[in-house]
Amino acid sequence: MDTFTRLLENLNLYNRSLGGLKSENCQLTNLQVFQILLLFPFFAIKGFSHYDGSALCRMFGGKKDVLYSYLSQDNINWRNVIYRITNWLLTKVTVRQDHKKSLLPTP
Fold it and tell me: What local confidence, expressed as pLDDT, does residue 102 receive?
């Protein structure tokens, strides 16, 4: 979990790019909700309806309404979020040196 959160910090995604700051009475910030959504596949959570009984719910709290309300926000620029994740991944991917020995065409 610590490694995953450090990876997410390297993406430079902040509350401002993920919908802004929430009011003081909210239990989770937008960044935390986004991290929970990204952890769904690693905890074998199939959807929002399965979140209530999962280990993530016991660790972070909140109900599925928090997730639905987060995704329904209009002020999140999802293209920018995907763009940042894609650029970060492209900088981390390295080309193997043995690809030139292959008989397959290169892109």
Answer: 62
